[in-house]
């Protein structure tokens, strides 16, 4: 027997995804492979995902793989390489936007007299609706109500139920995308696990099939519930969901009737809501969920975040059916039977959210444009076909990089041509004629593919990878090219080849693509508009573009690899990570030269990679002449906004200045200093609100700080609101003359501002003083001047009757803004 000792490197433990990866690596070998958790002494079959999960392997557990069989040497070599090189990368750290139960309530909401229950915000958002409590299903209790069954009859019923649920999940999976598809894939894996069948078919003296199911699911869930890992504890929800699906096929009547939501509702459940229940409840009237447990990493939480449904985890929530509720999972609070104060707070929050959405909506659908009118296409990088829809919704003007490796890796055999064709076609359908760039297989280096059996290399990043592999795996390459060219019949397609370094490679690619296109046409298969291009990620690309133009149509700068090859700097090596900086002056010259060379050759040019989504790099890219930039879809809105503030002529000068810098840090400092000069002006008509109907001081302050958030002058309106009230607690800012000047200096202020709120009806500000005009000063902590000087100057000006009257009687926000700027800046 051979052993492979290791320490678990997975922060979330050995849950479904890495367990599945390990199971796939074990499957090709005949030898018996056992996972031994030395902490709890559990030994499990490594061919079963459920067994591996049940071993309760958590971060830094000491473990070993035990290998015994006639091919144990080969198994140890392959599994040892997986444990050493890949296991730690099988699961990224989870982003869990939970909210502390102790987080203070917003100032305005804290004044409510309604009952507020606190919890953990798992999926952030704001919701309003009636309470709809859910019941629970006790399978063991239901089993006692069913007639006894013979053991063989039980077995046949369970086999039929398994088959039916497997078909059901497979059918749902064909129509699912995004997070829903991920959940269903996990369930499909569990349904085909041999350990599930063993658990269901080996329950002794079960009364009937339902009892066997209930006891089997309990047995499988027990080690997960007892795990030290919260993440693994929450995997029991997946088993519970499968148990309910299977039980539905064992009972003659309905197992569990979910309520039909006919009004806007907040669903309340003392027990965890399963992913299947969530998907069944989801509809126009599901506004929020409160459940007793479930955690940030459950599939239900992932689905809630994906669909934008606020989710709060709070214990012991008992609310009668139909009770009005307000839910704000951003602050971890459920307001029961909200009073007028809470209702008003919700209305103002909802109004603010609508204004922010209205501001962003046209920006997302508009084309990227600089301040001086230059068009810049902002495209999205994706790795899965299912990401395309979300990318376009996020404002992408096209897909600048579809990495196809996910179709090929994490599986035991390459995808068939038809599977690839369907994935590529889906993206083109979503694009509806917009630009789509799909990169051919980029295998090797940091992207191994086990079934290719690639040899170990001393320098894999400089070795046999990407285009260099294609001649040796010509069938694999040809199937991908066929799928891509067939997909082009759906819409115009740009096909990009990675790691091209020589003209010979360019010519070989040109020949291959055209030969395969001719072959497809001879078979009667349709081909549409397609273009061939290469990635410029090897520095030698600079010197071949003009000659390659006879064979290709476009080039895309792969900034990640190009930078590491240019600086001879492994970006994964922490000892030299400081060298890996795309603001390096020499690298900026290379980008500039590649862009100029492509433009001389009349080649379409784009840039993809991390640099594309970096706001600091944006003026440098514009200065180099790049007008197509691809990035992660989540950054597109921010980049469009930043783009609108940049002048391309000034950006060219910024780049020229960067060439003379001595370091990347100096480049970054210069760019940030120039960007800072383009902040919002202190006085602006958008900060002037005239003749408003406001009922209280609290409402006045919230409306002003909400407006700052809408106008993107603060990182958090609530934080600035709190800072204003902290100063109000020291002394009232009512100045007299029916004027108040609330003010603060806060790190949450990104642009210093003077806001104006003129009231229809005077309100009490404090100390028996009524005010009709509120002038609010919010100053950034980065402000060099003392905001008290601004306060004092404004206070002195307000002593003058004519100045006050102009503010009180003016009807034009532009005129009032000009007045303030003229009187307070001279």
Automatic annotation (TrEMBL):
Compartments (UniProt record): Cytoplasm
Cofactor: Mg(2+)
SUPFAM superfamilies named in the record: Enzyme I of the PEP:sugar phosphotransferase system HPr-binding (sub)domain, HPr-like, Phoshotransferase/anion transport protein, Phosphoenolpyruvate/pyruvate domain, Phosphohistidine domain
Pfam families on file: PEP-utilisers_N (PF05524), PEP-utilizers (PF00391), PEP-utilizers_C (PF02896), PTS-HPr (PF00381), PTS_EIIA_2 (PF00359)
EC nos: 2.7.3.9
Alphabetized GO MF terms: phosphoenolpyruvate-protein phosphotransferase activity
Signal peptide: none
Catalytic activity: L-histidyl-[protein] + phosphoenolpyruvate = N(pros)-phospho-L-histidyl-[protein] + pyruvate; D-fructose(out) + N(pros)-phospho-L-histidyl-[protein] = D-fructose 1-phosphate(in) + L-histidyl-[protein]
Keywords: Cytoplasm, Kinase, Magnesium, Metal-binding, Phosphoprotein, Phosphotransferase system, Sugar transport, Transferase, Transport
Domain HPr residue range list: 1-90
InterPro entries with a match to the protein in the record: HPr-like, HPr-like_sf, PEP-util_enz_mobile_dom, PEP-utilizing_PTS_enzyme, PEP_util_AS, PEP_util_C, Phosphohistidine_dom_sf, PTrfase/Anion_transptr
Stretches assigned to the PTS EIIA type-2 domain: 681-823
Annotated NCBIfam families: fruA, PTS_I_fam
UniProt family annotation: Belongs to the PEP-utilizing enzyme family.
Entry protein name: Phosphoenolpyruvate--protein phosphotransferase
Designated gene of the protein: ptsP
